[in-house]
Amino acid sequence: MLPTITVFGLTLPMYGIMSACGMLAAFILLSATRKYTRFNEDQALSLAIWAILAGFLGAKILYWLVEIKRIVADPGYMLRTLREGFVFYGALIGGLAGVGLYSMKKKLPFFAFTDYAIPGLVLGQAFGRIGCFCAGCCYGMECETPISVVFPAGSIAPAGVPLLPTQLMESAFLFLLTVLLVVLLKKKKPFGTVSGWYMVLYGAWRFTIEFFRRDERGFIGALSTSQFISVFIFAGGLALLILVGAGVLKKTVLDLPIPVEEEPKKKKKKSDETEVFASEADEPVQDEAEPKPEKEPKEAQEEPKE
């Protein structure tokens, strides 16, 4: 509906703006939920960087795999689509691979990191879907409903016909899913619980919503590429929840080492002041020196007896 916006003479794509907002929101959420984990600030920041970089790479690679026939016919298509064309499941798979490498580097449980990172990932995707709506991609089927929208001429979606806003529908679902996953994270369930519920719920949702989309996508048989991947995502999440329920995965955040971090400056300053006062109190108070009585003069020597 609003592909671009002009700010101070610069034309900016709304998809890029909403993606940036999503990343910012994800960082804020990671910062807010870190108190439910035992990761320090450096670990949280490094985890986010690994996941984002690997996620972008995975999203790009999967897009090229979906468009492999076009690339074989025209190899230059890869260069022309460096800044556009991403597949979410590629970002998910790539991001999880990045998290896996980082967890191996730090020798910490893989699902401890994924449980912590996934709510932020979902929130970022929710903003990204709003960007899809603004750009007109990922549009739904043509139908007359109270929530149908009509895209203007020049957008990616067909113009002048009522379409189901599958982008906004998915965005609303993802916002609600974020809340649910944060609640689960807060309860400090065994590692894999948050990840498993995400995989089950989003896998089922994505498989279903794909039936209502009409944008150009890759297909594997009768299923779209995303539906095909959703089957495995759903099955993997279900298996993960079964392992958690059976007690195979039973480690929780309480099993992680407590991070050593610097105390807040205020607390440190207050502590220093307390120490100063304590040291002053411990010092012995010297009374004013009382003047010593002058020595009495020695008695005169007795005169010798006659």
Outline the structure in words.
The protein is 58% helix and 5% strand. Strands 1-2 form a two-stranded antiparallel ribbon. The N and C termini lie far apart (137 Å). 32% of the residues are buried. The chain has 10 helices and 6 strands; from the N terminus they run E-E-H-H-H-H-H-H-E-E-H-H-E-E-H-H. The model is unreliable at 298-306 (pLDDT under 50). It is globular. It has a domain at 4-182. It is mainly alpha-helical.
Structural class: mainly alpha
The fraction of residues in strands falls at: 5-15%
Main-sheet strand order equals: 1-2
Q: Fraction of residues in helices?
A: 55-70%
- SS elements, strand count: 6
Number of helices: 10
What Rg is obtained from the alpha carbons, in whole angstroms?
33 Å
Give unreliable regions as ranges: 298-306
| Global geometry | globular
Query: How would you spell out the order of helices and strands?
Result: EEHHHHHHEEHHEEHH
- Output mean pLDDT: 86
- Describe the biggest sheet? 2 strands, antiparallel
Measured distance between first and last alpha carbons:
137 Å
Chart the SSEs and their pairings.
Elements (H helix, E strand, L loop, with lengths): L3 E4 L2 E4 H20 L7 H26 L1 H6 L3 H4 L7 H19 L3 H26 L13 E2 L11 E2 L2 H21 L6 H17 L9 E2 L2 E2 H21 L19 H18 L24
Antiparallel strand pairs: 1-2, 3-4, 5-6
In short:
Helices cover 58% and strands 5% of the residues.
State the main characteristics.
10 helices, 58% helix, 306 residues, mainly alpha, single chain, globular, two-stranded antiparallel sheet, 5% strand
